[in-house]
Amino acid sequence: MDADLLLMVFYMCMIGAAIGTFSGLIPGIHVNTLAVILSASSAVLLEYVSTFVPLRYAPVMLACCIMSAAVVHSAVSFVPSAFIGIPDTESVLSVLPAHRMVLEGEGMTAVRCAAIGSLTGAIVSLILTVPLYLLLDSGFGDYLNSITVGVLLIVLTLMIVEERNGSRAVAAIVIILSGAAGLVAMLEVLPMENMLGFGAETIFPLLTGLFGIPTLLWNGGMPIPPQYDDERFPVSPIHGIKGVLTGSLTGWFPGITSTAGAMLAGRIFGGGGPRGFISMVASIGTASTMFTFLTLSLTGKQRSGTMTVISGLLEGVDISLGSETFLCMMVTMAIASVAAVAIMIWAGKRVCVLVNRIDMGTVNRILLVLMVAMTIVFCGYWGLILLLACTVIGMIPLLAGLHRIHLTGCLIVPVLLFKLGIF
Fold first, then answer.
1. Where are the domains of the chain?
2. Sign, Cα dihedral of 142, 258, 89, 271
3. Overall average pLDDT of the 38-65 stretch
């Protein structure tokens, strides 16, 4: 890679990081929502990018920008999620203990744990990229594909068996209900329309209803105590290393989110307390993002909304191991990961100061209105029906004292049914 190309990649990474920072700091915005918005704007963005890079590089540079935005968004979104307590399918297991740490005045410690895990996951994943690519390309990938259904069934079984706080029967019901909601969203059963003119973002009311609104209603604007930042390195990188293997699985198998992967990793390695667990989940999320691109490169299959957009941009472009585009994407993920950690620390410090100056009850009410309004914009008024139904389902674990990981059935169950050929 020559210096000019490297400079172009760096420039696009910075633009993507700025986009990801802005979207990541807005509570409730899922990375797939960001991907849809960028996809709808891709024609305009391509025209803009082609004004300062050679035309043949324009799609690759835009893909680098989108990848950078996704990496930074996924990392930075942990900050508002932890302080307000609104998780999504990728972060529910880490955000809930992180929010408890916030309520104990250790919010910045939680942010640093996530940052260390994310950076560790990025470094180890980049080191393993070539050997893992060669392993999967040698036939091991075909073997993994053959056991996908079994892996999904094991994950669902473990989710129920691991439930110790409440009724396992109720946990199974929550998985079924959330799975049904996921099917409604993915099959677009309701005639939802996007008011901005592109496809309805059905994942938004699904995740907002299951995870976002129930948290706001349950917390009710609980006051946040003063936050302390006494430890620079509050957790060992070893927890991040533990998460990389699981992250590679979540990147390959469809439907297995970082949350479900964290449950498996916790089962195998142990959680290491709240700090270690937060770090491990952050590592899994970063590793998963990198390995979803590896999956795209090897099989052409898109395991996330971001990869769907990138796949469309790079159609007909060689993204195999050793290609110039593959190298550009690896450099992008390395730069974006470092930028994401720096932005996380910066944002965490600012939020620590801000939360003590504002009324959280008012913030919660504003967020509720914002989520309802965004649902109408992304999915029309029919989206409100899905939002309401998912909110009711999302309240069940809180009322029954269950782990909220069961709500990730909204992704696992539909994928399992699709793999079985039922839908």
1. 3-419
2. positive
3. 81
